[in-house]
Amino acid sequence: MKIVVCIKQVPDTKGGVKFKPDGTLDRGAMLAIMNPDDKAGLEAALRLKDQYGAEVTVLTMGLPKAEAVLREAFAMGADKGILVTDRVLGGADTWATSSTIAGAIRNLDYDLIITGRQAIDGDTAQVGPQISEHLNLPVISYAEEIKVDEKAMTVEVKRQFEDRYHIVKAKMPCLITALSELNEPRYMTPGGIFDAFEKEVTVWGRADLKDVDDSNLGLKGSPTQIAKASDKVKKGQGEKVVLDSADEAVEYLMGKLVEKHIV
Amino acid sequence: MSLEEYKGVFIFAQQVDNEISSIALELLGKAKNLAEDLDEKKVTAVLLGSGVKGLVDELAQYGADRVIVVDDPALKDYRTEPYTHALASVIDEYKPEILLVGATAIGRDLGPRVSSRVHTGLTADCTSLEIGDFPINPVAGQEQKHKQLLMTRPAFGGNTIATIACPDFRPQMATVRPGVMQKIDPIKGAKAEVVEFNPGFEENNCYTEIVKIVKEATSVADIQAAKILVSGGRGVGSAENFKLLDDLAEALNGTVSCSRAVVDSGWKPKDLQVGQTGKTVRPALYFAIGISGAIQHVAGMEESDIIIAINKDENAPIFDVADYGVVGDLNKILPVLTKKIKEALAAK
After folding, report:
1. How far is CA A255 from the centre of its chain?
2. Closest CA to B83 of B52, B54, B43
3. Of A78, A220, B198, B285, which cross-links A73 as Cys (Cβ 3.0–4.6 Å)?
4. Does A36 sit behind a cis peptide bond, omega within 30 degrees of 0 on the bond before it?
5. Of B116, B211, B319, the CB nearest to A168
6. Rounded to the nearest 5°, which phi and psi values hold at B323?
Protein backbone atom coordinates (compact mmCIF):
# COMPACT_ATOMS: atom_id res chain seq x y z
CA MET A 1 0.00 0.00 0.00
CA LYS A 2 1.21 3.49 -0.78
CA ILE A 3 0.20 6.40 1.39
CA VAL A 4 0.77 10.10 0.78
CA VAL A 5 0.53 12.37 3.81
CA CYS A 6 0.22 16.12 3.30
CA ILE A 7 1.83 18.13 6.08
CA LYS A 8 2.31 21.83 6.70
CA GLN A 9 4.82 23.85 8.65
CA VAL A 10 2.99 26.36 10.84
CA PRO A 11 3.94 28.84 13.56
CA ASP A 12 3.21 27.44 17.00
CA THR A 13 0.36 29.45 18.50
CA LYS A 14 0.03 27.29 21.60
CA GLY A 15 2.64 28.97 23.75
CA GLY A 16 1.05 32.35 23.02
CA VAL A 17 1.80 34.47 20.01
CA LYS A 18 4.47 37.11 19.73
CA PHE A 19 3.79 40.59 18.48
CA LYS A 20 6.20 43.11 17.01
CA PRO A 21 6.36 46.59 18.56
CA ASP A 22 4.07 47.86 15.78
CA GLY A 23 1.42 45.37 16.88
CA THR A 24 1.71 42.93 13.97
CA LEU A 25 2.40 39.23 14.42
CA ASP A 26 6.05 38.36 14.76
CA ARG A 27 6.13 35.08 12.86
CA GLY A 28 9.91 34.94 12.99
CA ALA A 29 9.87 34.84 16.78
CA MET A 30 7.49 31.91 16.93
CA LEU A 31 8.57 28.33 16.73
CA ALA A 32 7.82 26.59 13.42
CA ILE A 33 6.21 23.20 14.00
CA MET A 34 4.46 20.43 12.12
CA ASN A 35 0.74 21.23 12.13
CA PRO A 36 -0.88 19.08 14.88
CA ASP A 37 -3.71 17.59 12.80
CA ASP A 38 -1.17 16.73 10.08
CA LYS A 39 1.03 15.01 12.63
CA ALA A 40 -1.96 12.89 13.66
CA GLY A 41 -2.46 12.09 9.97
CA LEU A 42 1.19 11.06 9.68
CA GLU A 43 0.91 8.91 12.79
CA ALA A 44 -2.16 7.20 11.33
CA ALA A 45 -0.18 6.47 8.16
CA LEU A 46 2.77 5.12 10.15
CA ARG A 47 0.46 2.82 12.10
CA LEU A 48 -0.91 1.46 8.82
CA LYS A 49 2.72 0.99 7.76
CA ASP A 50 3.47 -0.94 10.97
CA GLN A 51 0.41 -3.09 10.37
CA TYR A 52 0.52 -3.66 6.63
CA GLY A 53 3.96 -2.56 5.49
CA ALA A 54 2.94 0.56 3.62
CA GLU A 55 5.25 3.07 1.98
CA VAL A 56 4.68 6.53 3.44
CA THR A 57 5.50 9.64 1.42
CA VAL A 58 5.18 13.02 3.09
CA LEU A 59 4.54 16.05 0.96
CA THR A 60 4.64 19.69 1.92
CA MET A 61 4.23 22.96 0.09
CA GLY A 62 5.95 26.04 1.43
CA LEU A 63 9.16 27.99 1.68
CA PRO A 64 12.46 26.09 1.41
CA LYS A 65 12.73 26.05 5.23
CA ALA A 66 9.62 23.83 5.33
CA GLU A 67 12.06 21.00 4.62
CA ALA A 68 12.40 20.81 8.41
CA VAL A 69 8.97 19.20 8.82
CA LEU A 70 9.86 16.58 6.22
CA ARG A 71 13.00 15.74 8.22
CA GLU A 72 10.89 15.47 11.34
CA ALA A 73 8.55 13.12 9.47
CA PHE A 74 11.55 11.01 8.39
CA ALA A 75 12.63 10.79 12.01
CA MET A 76 9.17 9.50 12.90
CA GLY A 77 9.38 6.87 10.17
CA ALA A 78 8.26 8.34 6.84
CA ASP A 79 9.99 6.83 3.82
CA LYS A 80 10.03 9.62 1.25
CA GLY A 81 9.67 13.37 1.36
CA ILE A 82 8.68 15.90 -1.26
CA LEU A 83 8.95 19.66 -0.90
CA VAL A 84 6.93 21.69 -3.37
CA THR A 85 8.39 25.16 -3.45
CA ASP A 86 8.42 27.91 -6.06
CA ARG A 87 8.03 31.64 -5.93
CA VAL A 88 5.14 31.52 -8.39
CA LEU A 89 3.19 29.40 -5.90
CA GLY A 90 3.25 32.07 -3.17
CA GLY A 91 0.19 33.92 -1.95
CA ALA A 92 -2.10 30.98 -2.74
CA ASP A 93 -5.55 30.68 -1.19
CA THR A 94 -7.07 27.26 -0.51
CA TRP A 95 -8.19 26.83 -4.13
CA ALA A 96 -4.70 27.50 -5.52
CA THR A 97 -3.01 25.53 -2.74
CA SER A 98 -5.17 22.48 -3.36
CA SER A 99 -4.62 22.81 -7.14
CA THR A 100 -0.86 22.86 -6.53
CA ILE A 101 -0.83 19.88 -4.18
CA ALA A 102 -3.11 17.91 -6.52
CA GLY A 103 -0.68 18.71 -9.35
CA ALA A 104 2.17 17.27 -7.29
CA ILE A 105 0.25 14.17 -6.20
CA ARG A 106 -0.64 13.35 -9.83
CA ASN A 107 3.02 12.34 -10.23
CA LEU A 108 2.75 9.74 -7.50
CA ASP A 109 1.33 6.26 -7.06
CA TYR A 110 -0.99 6.12 -4.10
CA ASP A 111 -3.80 4.17 -2.51
CA LEU A 112 -4.52 6.59 0.28
CA ILE A 113 -3.97 10.30 0.88
CA ILE A 114 -4.15 11.61 4.42
CA THR A 115 -4.24 15.30 5.33
CA GLY A 116 -4.86 16.98 8.65
CA ARG A 117 -8.33 18.39 9.12
CA GLN A 118 -7.03 21.95 9.36
CA ALA A 119 -3.89 23.96 9.98
CA ILE A 120 -3.61 26.09 13.10
CA ASP A 121 -2.62 29.21 11.17
CA GLY A 122 -5.46 29.35 8.66
CA ASP A 123 -8.00 27.10 10.41
CA THR A 124 -9.94 26.66 7.16
CA ALA A 125 -10.20 22.84 6.87
CA GLN A 126 -10.68 23.36 3.13
CA VAL A 127 -7.52 22.11 1.47
CA GLY A 128 -8.08 18.38 2.14
CA PRO A 129 -11.57 18.16 0.59
CA GLN A 130 -10.49 20.46 -2.24
CA ILE A 131 -7.54 18.20 -3.13
CA SER A 132 -9.92 15.24 -3.23
CA GLU A 133 -12.18 17.07 -5.66
CA HIS A 134 -9.29 18.03 -7.97
CA LEU A 135 -8.17 14.37 -8.03
CA ASN A 136 -11.74 13.03 -8.30
CA LEU A 137 -11.39 10.88 -5.20
CA PRO A 138 -13.82 10.06 -2.41
CA VAL A 139 -13.17 12.11 0.73
CA ILE A 140 -13.88 11.28 4.35
CA SER A 141 -13.32 14.27 6.63
CA TYR A 142 -12.93 14.42 10.41
CA ALA A 143 -11.55 10.90 10.80
CA GLU A 144 -11.20 9.53 14.31
CA GLU A 145 -10.34 5.93 13.40
CA ILE A 146 -9.09 4.38 10.18
CA LYS A 147 -9.25 0.72 9.20
CA VAL A 148 -8.00 -0.65 5.90
CA ASP A 149 -9.13 -3.78 4.08
CA GLU A 150 -6.21 -4.45 1.75
CA LYS A 151 -7.92 -7.25 -0.13
CA ALA A 152 -11.08 -5.36 -0.89
CA MET A 153 -9.10 -2.11 -1.30
CA THR A 154 -11.50 -0.25 0.96
CA VAL A 155 -11.19 1.89 4.08
CA GLU A 156 -13.60 2.09 6.97
CA VAL A 157 -13.45 5.35 8.85
CA LYS A 158 -15.10 6.66 11.99
CA ARG A 159 -16.24 10.09 10.82
CA GLN A 160 -17.11 12.59 13.53
CA PHE A 161 -20.11 14.95 13.46
CA GLU A 162 -21.37 17.23 16.24
CA ASP A 163 -23.76 14.75 17.87
CA ARG A 164 -22.90 11.45 16.23
CA TYR A 165 -20.42 9.53 14.21
CA HIS A 166 -20.75 7.60 10.99
CA ILE A 167 -18.78 4.52 10.08
CA VAL A 168 -18.10 5.28 6.44
CA LYS A 169 -16.69 2.89 3.88
CA ALA A 170 -14.93 4.15 0.76
CA LYS A 171 -13.07 2.59 -2.12
CA MET A 172 -9.36 3.29 -2.39
CA PRO A 173 -7.78 5.42 -3.62
CA CYS A 174 -9.39 7.97 -1.37
CA LEU A 175 -8.55 10.96 0.81
CA ILE A 176 -9.03 11.16 4.57
CA THR A 177 -8.70 14.25 6.76
CA ALA A 178 -7.48 13.47 10.25
CA LEU A 179 -8.46 14.96 13.59
CA SER A 180 -5.74 15.34 16.19
CA GLU A 181 -7.96 13.17 18.41
CA LEU A 182 -7.11 10.27 16.07
CA ASN A 183 -4.01 9.25 18.02
CA GLU A 184 -1.02 10.29 20.06
CA PRO A 185 1.81 10.84 17.56
CA ARG A 186 5.01 8.93 18.26
CA TYR A 187 8.28 10.60 19.09
CA MET A 188 11.20 10.73 16.75
CA THR A 189 13.56 7.79 17.34
CA PRO A 190 17.35 8.23 17.66
CA GLY A 191 17.85 5.99 14.61
CA GLY A 192 15.14 7.92 12.85
CA ILE A 193 16.80 11.24 13.60
CA PHE A 194 20.05 9.90 12.15
CA ASP A 195 18.22 8.68 9.04
CA ALA A 196 16.40 11.96 8.79
CA PHE A 197 19.56 13.78 7.84
CA GLU A 198 20.80 11.05 5.51
CA LYS A 199 17.61 10.87 3.50
CA GLU A 200 17.11 12.92 0.42
CA VAL A 201 14.25 15.36 0.11
CA THR A 202 12.81 15.61 -3.39
CA VAL A 203 12.26 19.24 -4.35
CA TRP A 204 9.66 20.11 -6.96
CA GLY A 205 8.87 23.45 -8.52
CA ARG A 206 6.18 24.72 -10.86
CA ALA A 207 7.51 22.69 -13.81
CA ASP A 208 7.05 19.45 -11.89
CA LEU A 209 3.32 19.90 -11.32
CA LYS A 210 1.14 17.77 -13.56
CA ASP A 211 -1.99 18.95 -15.38
CA VAL A 212 -2.32 22.30 -13.67
CA ASP A 213 -2.87 25.53 -15.52
CA ASP A 214 -0.91 28.63 -14.49
CA SER A 215 -4.22 30.35 -13.94
CA ASN A 216 -4.88 28.05 -10.98
CA LEU A 217 -1.63 28.72 -9.12
CA GLY A 218 -0.32 31.23 -6.64
CA LEU A 219 -1.78 34.61 -5.90
CA LYS A 220 -3.20 35.09 -9.36
CA GLY A 221 -4.86 31.69 -9.31
CA SER A 222 -6.63 32.48 -6.05
CA PRO A 223 -10.34 33.34 -6.32
CA THR A 224 -10.34 34.87 -2.84
CA GLN A 225 -8.38 38.01 -2.13
CA ILE A 226 -7.58 39.75 1.11
CA ALA A 227 -9.40 43.05 1.46
CA LYS A 228 -8.06 43.84 4.89
CA ALA A 229 -5.99 42.08 7.51
CA SER A 230 -5.42 43.25 11.00
CA ASP A 231 -4.52 42.08 14.41
CA LYS A 232 -7.52 41.74 16.50
CA VAL A 233 -8.82 44.85 18.13
CA LYS A 234 -9.29 44.08 21.77
CA LYS A 235 -12.60 44.88 23.34
CA GLY A 236 -12.36 47.87 25.65
CA GLN A 237 -11.49 46.80 29.14
CA GLY A 238 -14.25 47.10 31.69
CA GLU A 239 -13.93 47.39 35.44
CA LYS A 240 -11.62 45.27 37.53
CA VAL A 241 -11.85 45.27 41.29
CA VAL A 242 -9.63 43.75 43.95
CA LEU A 243 -11.66 43.37 47.12
CA ASP A 244 -10.61 42.24 50.55
CA SER A 245 -13.31 39.71 51.24
CA ALA A 246 -15.62 37.37 49.43
CA ASP A 247 -18.59 39.20 50.90
CA GLU A 248 -17.49 42.47 49.33
CA ALA A 249 -16.93 40.72 46.02
CA VAL A 250 -20.41 39.25 46.16
CA GLU A 251 -21.89 42.61 47.06
CA TYR A 252 -20.15 44.16 44.06
CA LEU A 253 -21.38 41.42 41.71
CA MET A 254 -24.94 41.51 43.05
CA GLY A 255 -24.97 45.25 42.43
CA LYS A 256 -24.08 44.67 38.79
CA LEU A 257 -26.59 41.84 38.34
CA VAL A 258 -29.37 44.01 39.74
CA GLU A 259 -28.28 47.01 37.67
CA LYS A 260 -28.45 44.84 34.52
CA HIS A 261 -31.84 43.40 35.51
CA ILE A 262 -30.55 39.87 35.69
CA VAL A 263 -31.60 39.40 39.28
CA MET B 1 -17.97 33.18 -16.38
CA SER B 2 -20.27 36.13 -16.82
CA LEU B 3 -20.59 37.51 -13.32
CA GLU B 4 -23.81 39.41 -14.08
CA GLU B 5 -25.70 36.17 -14.64
CA TYR B 6 -25.30 35.33 -10.97
CA LYS B 7 -28.04 36.81 -8.82
CA GLY B 8 -29.58 36.40 -5.42
CA VAL B 9 -28.58 35.30 -1.95
CA PHE B 10 -28.78 31.56 -1.29
CA ILE B 11 -28.24 29.56 1.85
CA PHE B 12 -27.65 25.85 2.31
CA ALA B 13 -30.48 24.74 4.62
CA GLN B 14 -28.75 21.97 6.55
CA GLN B 15 -31.04 19.30 7.96
CA VAL B 16 -30.11 16.23 9.96
CA ASP B 17 -32.66 13.44 10.51
CA ASN B 18 -35.19 15.70 8.76
CA GLU B 19 -34.79 18.44 11.33
CA ILE B 20 -33.59 21.84 10.21
CA SER B 21 -30.31 22.71 11.92
CA SER B 22 -30.26 25.97 13.86
CA ILE B 23 -27.44 27.28 11.64
CA ALA B 24 -29.77 27.26 8.61
CA LEU B 25 -32.12 29.68 10.36
CA GLU B 26 -29.19 31.86 11.43
CA LEU B 27 -28.00 32.00 7.82
CA LEU B 28 -31.48 33.03 6.68
CA GLY B 29 -31.40 35.94 9.12
CA LYS B 30 -28.08 37.14 7.71
CA ALA B 31 -29.11 36.46 4.10
CA LYS B 32 -32.09 38.79 4.55
CA ASN B 33 -29.78 41.69 5.52
CA LEU B 34 -27.44 41.00 2.63
CA ALA B 35 -30.32 40.78 0.15
CA GLU B 36 -31.59 44.18 1.32
CA ASP B 37 -28.15 45.72 0.86
CA LEU B 38 -28.04 44.29 -2.67
CA ASP B 39 -31.57 45.49 -3.47
CA GLU B 40 -32.50 41.86 -3.99
CA LYS B 41 -36.03 40.87 -3.18
CA LYS B 42 -35.56 37.19 -2.57
CA VAL B 43 -33.67 34.93 -0.22
CA THR B 44 -33.42 31.35 -1.44
CA ALA B 45 -32.86 28.31 0.77
CA VAL B 46 -31.50 25.13 -0.79
CA LEU B 47 -32.89 22.10 0.99
CA LEU B 48 -31.30 18.72 0.29
CA GLY B 49 -32.49 15.43 1.73
CA SER B 50 -34.93 12.56 1.47
CA GLY B 51 -38.55 13.18 2.41
CA VAL B 52 -37.80 16.77 3.47
CA LYS B 53 -40.54 18.74 1.74
CA GLY B 54 -42.36 19.14 5.06
CA LEU B 55 -39.54 21.40 6.26
CA VAL B 56 -40.25 24.15 3.77
CA ASP B 57 -42.66 26.12 5.96
CA GLU B 58 -40.17 26.38 8.80
CA LEU B 59 -37.64 27.90 6.39
CA ALA B 60 -40.32 30.31 5.14
CA GLN B 61 -41.10 31.42 8.68
CA TYR B 62 -37.45 32.26 9.25
CA GLY B 63 -37.10 34.32 6.11
CA ALA B 64 -36.82 32.12 3.01
CA ASP B 65 -38.79 33.56 0.09
CA ARG B 66 -38.03 30.60 -2.11
CA VAL B 67 -36.93 27.06 -1.30
CA ILE B 68 -35.21 24.88 -3.88
CA VAL B 69 -35.78 21.29 -2.80
CA VAL B 70 -33.70 18.38 -4.01
CA ASP B 71 -35.46 15.37 -2.58
CA ASP B 72 -33.83 12.04 -3.35
CA PRO B 73 -33.10 8.80 -1.45
CA ALA B 74 -29.41 9.32 -2.28
CA LEU B 75 -29.51 12.31 0.07
CA LYS B 76 -30.97 10.54 3.10
CA ASP B 77 -27.93 10.86 5.33
CA TYR B 78 -25.07 13.23 4.65
CA ARG B 79 -22.51 11.89 2.23
CA THR B 80 -20.04 14.18 0.52
CA GLU B 81 -20.52 13.13 -3.09
CA PRO B 82 -24.30 13.14 -3.60
CA TYR B 83 -24.63 16.35 -1.56
CA THR B 84 -21.86 17.99 -3.58
CA HIS B 85 -23.50 16.90 -6.80
CA ALA B 86 -26.86 18.26 -5.67
CA LEU B 87 -25.58 21.62 -4.46
CA ALA B 88 -23.20 22.14 -7.40
CA SER B 89 -26.06 21.32 -9.79
CA VAL B 90 -28.30 23.88 -8.07
CA ILE B 91 -25.53 26.47 -8.50
CA ASP B 92 -25.16 25.65 -12.20
CA GLU B 93 -28.89 25.87 -12.75
CA TYR B 94 -29.91 28.84 -10.57
CA LYS B 95 -26.64 30.83 -10.45
CA PRO B 96 -26.59 32.49 -7.04
CA GLU B 97 -24.49 35.56 -6.45
CA ILE B 98 -23.88 34.56 -2.82
CA LEU B 99 -24.06 31.14 -1.18
CA LEU B 100 -23.79 30.76 2.58
CA VAL B 101 -23.12 27.42 4.25
CA GLY B 102 -22.87 26.66 7.97
CA ALA B 103 -19.37 25.97 9.28
CA THR B 104 -20.52 22.66 10.74
CA ALA B 105 -19.02 19.19 10.42
CA ILE B 106 -21.19 18.87 7.29
CA GLY B 107 -20.69 22.36 5.85
CA ARG B 108 -16.92 22.36 6.30
CA ASP B 109 -16.77 19.22 4.16
CA LEU B 110 -19.46 20.13 1.62
CA GLY B 111 -18.41 23.76 1.14
CA PRO B 112 -14.83 23.11 -0.02
CA ARG B 113 -15.86 20.23 -2.25
CA VAL B 114 -18.57 22.32 -3.93
CA SER B 115 -16.34 25.37 -4.34
CA SER B 116 -13.75 23.21 -6.05
CA ARG B 117 -16.31 21.68 -8.37
CA VAL B 118 -17.79 24.96 -9.52
CA HIS B 119 -14.41 26.76 -9.37
CA THR B 120 -15.02 29.62 -7.03
CA GLY B 121 -13.54 30.94 -3.81
CA LEU B 122 -14.68 29.89 -0.36
CA THR B 123 -13.99 31.76 2.86
CA ALA B 124 -14.05 29.56 5.95
CA ASP B 125 -15.63 30.11 9.34
CA CYS B 126 -16.79 33.68 8.85
CA THR B 127 -17.95 35.70 11.83
CA SER B 128 -19.13 38.78 9.95
CA LEU B 129 -20.49 39.37 6.45
CA GLU B 130 -21.32 42.63 4.75
CA ILE B 131 -21.75 44.19 1.35
CA GLY B 132 -19.09 46.72 0.34
CA ASP B 133 -16.43 47.79 -2.11
CA PHE B 134 -13.36 45.82 -3.15
CA PRO B 135 -10.70 47.07 -2.81
CA ILE B 136 -12.12 48.77 0.26
CA ASN B 137 -10.26 51.95 -0.69
CA PRO B 138 -9.66 52.89 -4.34
CA VAL B 139 -6.30 51.71 -5.70
CA ALA B 140 -4.75 53.39 -8.75
CA GLY B 141 -4.86 51.11 -11.78
CA GLN B 142 -7.32 48.66 -10.24
CA GLU B 143 -11.05 48.68 -10.79
CA GLN B 144 -12.97 49.15 -7.56
CA LYS B 145 -15.90 46.77 -7.61
CA HIS B 146 -19.05 47.64 -5.70
CA LYS B 147 -21.58 45.47 -3.90
CA GLN B 148 -19.13 42.71 -3.16
CA LEU B 149 -19.49 40.27 -0.29
CA LEU B 150 -16.87 41.15 2.32
CA MET B 151 -16.26 38.15 4.53
CA THR B 152 -14.51 38.58 7.86
CA ARG B 153 -12.95 35.70 9.73
CA PRO B 154 -10.52 35.09 12.54
CA ALA B 155 -7.26 33.32 11.74
CA PHE B 156 -4.20 32.31 13.67
CA GLY B 157 -6.20 30.85 16.50
CA GLY B 158 -8.17 34.07 16.83
CA ASN B 159 -5.12 36.34 17.00
CA THR B 160 -5.82 38.10 13.73
CA ILE B 161 -8.83 38.90 11.65
CA ALA B 162 -8.96 39.12 7.90
CA THR B 163 -11.60 40.41 5.51
CA ILE B 164 -11.77 38.46 2.29
CA ALA B 165 -13.48 39.16 -1.03
CA CYS B 166 -14.10 37.02 -4.09
CA PRO B 167 -14.39 39.67 -6.81
CA ASP B 168 -13.92 37.65 -10.01
CA PHE B 169 -15.76 34.40 -9.35
CA ARG B 170 -19.33 33.46 -8.52
CA PRO B 171 -20.98 32.49 -6.35
CA GLN B 172 -19.22 34.24 -3.52
CA MET B 173 -19.16 31.42 -0.98
CA ALA B 174 -18.66 31.51 2.77
CA THR B 175 -19.02 29.08 5.61
CA VAL B 176 -20.34 30.81 8.71
CA ARG B 177 -19.68 29.86 12.32
CA PRO B 178 -22.77 28.62 14.16
CA GLY B 179 -24.00 30.86 16.94
CA VAL B 180 -22.79 34.12 15.38
CA MET B 181 -25.61 35.33 13.11
CA GLN B 182 -29.07 36.18 14.44
CA LYS B 183 -32.26 34.42 13.42
CA ILE B 184 -35.28 36.59 12.77
CA ASP B 185 -38.39 36.22 14.89
CA PRO B 186 -40.44 33.62 13.03
CA ILE B 187 -43.25 35.01 10.87
CA LYS B 188 -46.29 32.87 11.57
CA GLY B 189 -48.00 31.47 8.51
CA ALA B 190 -45.29 32.64 6.10
CA LYS B 191 -45.10 30.66 2.87
CA ALA B 192 -42.27 30.30 0.39
CA GLU B 193 -42.23 29.58 -3.30
CA VAL B 194 -41.19 25.94 -3.65
CA VAL B 195 -39.07 24.78 -6.56
CA GLU B 196 -38.44 21.07 -6.93
CA PHE B 197 -35.25 20.15 -8.71
CA ASN B 198 -33.48 16.85 -9.22
CA PRO B 199 -30.21 16.61 -11.14
CA GLY B 200 -30.27 12.77 -11.08
CA PHE B 201 -27.90 10.67 -8.98
CA GLU B 202 -25.60 8.02 -10.38
CA GLU B 203 -23.15 6.13 -8.19
CA ASN B 204 -19.50 6.63 -9.05
CA ASN B 205 -16.13 5.95 -7.42
CA CYS B 206 -16.58 8.91 -5.08
CA TYR B 207 -19.70 7.51 -3.43
CA THR B 208 -19.19 6.20 0.07
CA GLU B 209 -21.27 3.76 2.03
CA ILE B 210 -22.53 4.53 5.52
CA VAL B 211 -22.03 1.30 7.44
CA LYS B 212 -23.37 2.56 10.74
CA ILE B 213 -24.66 5.73 12.38
CA VAL B 214 -24.08 6.08 16.10
CA LYS B 215 -25.76 8.96 17.85
CA GLU B 216 -23.85 10.03 20.89
CA ALA B 217 -25.84 10.67 24.00
CA THR B 218 -26.50 14.38 24.10
CA SER B 219 -27.40 14.65 27.71
CA VAL B 220 -25.41 17.87 27.60
CA ALA B 221 -27.05 21.24 27.20
CA ASP B 222 -26.91 23.34 24.06
CA ILE B 223 -24.57 26.09 25.18
CA GLN B 224 -25.22 28.12 22.03
CA ALA B 225 -28.87 28.48 22.92
CA ALA B 226 -28.26 29.51 26.55
CA LYS B 227 -28.99 33.07 27.67
CA ILE B 228 -26.74 32.76 30.69
CA LEU B 229 -23.54 30.73 30.69
CA VAL B 230 -21.50 29.93 33.76
CA SER B 231 -18.18 28.91 32.29
CA GLY B 232 -15.30 27.36 34.19
CA GLY B 233 -11.62 26.94 33.43
CA ARG B 234 -8.59 25.18 34.83
CA GLY B 235 -8.82 27.42 37.91
CA VAL B 236 -11.91 25.54 39.06
CA GLY B 237 -9.45 22.84 40.09
CA SER B 238 -11.37 19.59 39.63
CA ALA B 239 -14.41 17.97 38.09
CA GLU B 240 -16.00 17.78 41.54
CA ASN B 241 -15.52 21.47 42.16
CA PHE B 242 -17.70 22.29 39.14
CA LYS B 243 -20.54 21.73 41.62
CA LEU B 244 -20.04 25.37 42.62
CA LEU B 245 -20.70 26.41 39.02
CA ASP B 246 -23.62 24.01 38.64
CA ASP B 247 -25.24 25.62 41.67
CA LEU B 248 -24.74 29.15 40.37
CA ALA B 249 -26.07 28.17 36.94
CA GLU B 250 -29.10 26.55 38.50
CA ALA B 251 -29.86 29.64 40.60
CA LEU B 252 -29.75 31.82 37.46
CA ASN B 253 -31.48 29.29 35.23
CA GLY B 254 -28.28 29.23 33.18
CA THR B 255 -26.05 26.57 31.69
CA VAL B 256 -22.53 25.46 32.54
CA SER B 257 -19.84 25.62 29.87
CA CYS B 258 -16.06 25.44 30.00
CA SER B 259 -12.67 26.18 28.46
CA ARG B 260 -10.50 23.80 26.51
CA ALA B 261 -8.27 23.06 29.51
CA VAL B 262 -11.30 21.57 31.27
CA VAL B 263 -12.09 19.29 28.34
CA ASP B 264 -8.44 18.27 28.04
CA SER B 265 -8.45 17.36 31.75
CA GLY B 266 -11.53 15.21 31.19
CA TRP B 267 -13.67 17.22 33.61
CA LYS B 268 -16.37 18.13 31.07
CA PRO B 269 -17.38 16.85 27.63
CA LYS B 270 -16.24 18.62 24.47
CA ASP B 271 -19.81 19.71 23.67
CA LEU B 272 -19.57 22.26 26.48
CA GLN B 273 -16.33 23.83 25.25
CA VAL B 274 -16.33 27.50 24.31
CA GLY B 275 -13.63 28.86 22.00
CA GLN B 276 -11.84 28.60 18.70
CA THR B 277 -11.82 24.80 18.72
CA GLY B 278 -15.10 24.63 20.61
CA LYS B 279 -18.27 26.63 20.12
CA THR B 280 -18.91 30.32 19.62
CA VAL B 281 -21.42 31.69 22.09
CA ARG B 282 -23.06 35.07 22.60
CA PRO B 283 -25.25 34.85 25.69
CA ALA B 284 -26.74 37.82 27.49
CA LEU B 285 -24.44 37.06 30.42
CA TYR B 286 -21.19 35.10 30.46
CA PHE B 287 -19.41 34.19 33.67
CA ALA B 288 -15.74 33.34 33.13
CA ILE B 289 -14.71 31.60 36.32
CA GLY B 290 -11.13 30.46 36.79
CA ILE B 291 -10.56 31.02 33.08
CA SER B 292 -7.30 32.76 32.25
CA GLY B 293 -8.63 34.02 28.92
CA ALA B 294 -6.36 32.58 26.25
CA ILE B 295 -7.06 34.25 22.94
CA GLN B 296 -8.55 31.00 21.59
CA HIS B 297 -11.14 31.06 24.36
CA VAL B 298 -11.89 34.75 24.03
CA ALA B 299 -12.53 34.28 20.30
CA GLY B 300 -15.52 32.11 21.21
CA MET B 301 -17.19 34.34 23.79
CA GLU B 302 -16.21 37.98 23.39
CA GLU B 303 -19.49 38.84 21.66
CA SER B 304 -21.40 38.08 24.85
CA ASP B 305 -23.47 41.06 26.02
CA ILE B 306 -22.06 41.13 29.55
CA ILE B 307 -18.91 39.33 30.67
CA ILE B 308 -18.15 38.82 34.35
CA ALA B 309 -14.76 37.35 35.25
CA ILE B 310 -13.66 35.89 38.54
CA ASN B 311 -10.01 34.94 38.77
CA LYS B 312 -7.27 34.74 41.37
CA ASP B 313 -4.65 36.08 39.00
CA GLU B 314 -4.90 39.83 38.74
CA ASN B 315 -3.00 39.74 35.43
CA ALA B 316 -5.16 37.13 33.73
CA PRO B 317 -5.97 38.30 30.19
CA ILE B 318 -9.66 37.53 30.74
CA PHE B 319 -9.85 40.86 32.56
CA ASP B 320 -9.06 42.60 29.27
CA VAL B 321 -12.40 41.53 27.82
CA ALA B 322 -14.53 41.41 30.98
CA ASP B 323 -17.06 44.13 31.66
CA TYR B 324 -16.83 43.37 35.36
CA GLY B 325 -13.84 41.63 36.83
CA VAL B 326 -13.31 40.44 40.36
CA VAL B 327 -9.89 39.38 41.53
CA GLY B 328 -10.52 36.76 44.16
CA ASP B 329 -11.00 33.14 45.17
CA LEU B 330 -13.87 31.50 43.34
CA ASN B 331 -14.21 28.92 46.11
CA LYS B 332 -15.11 31.64 48.58
CA ILE B 333 -17.11 33.89 46.27
CA LEU B 334 -19.35 31.42 44.43
CA PRO B 335 -21.20 29.81 47.36
CA VAL B 336 -22.08 33.21 48.80
CA LEU B 337 -23.03 34.64 45.41
CA THR B 338 -25.31 31.70 44.66
CA LYS B 339 -26.99 32.07 48.04
CA LYS B 340 -27.53 35.82 47.56
CA ILE B 341 -28.97 35.35 44.08
CA LYS B 342 -31.39 32.71 45.36
CA GLU B 343 -32.49 35.02 48.14
CA ALA B 344 -32.97 37.95 45.79
CA LEU B 345 -35.02 35.89 43.33
CA ALA B 346 -37.10 34.34 46.11
CA ALA B 347 -37.90 37.81 47.47
CA LYS B 348 -39.41 38.87 44.15
Report:
1. 47
2. B52
3. A78
4. no
5. B211
6. -75, -40
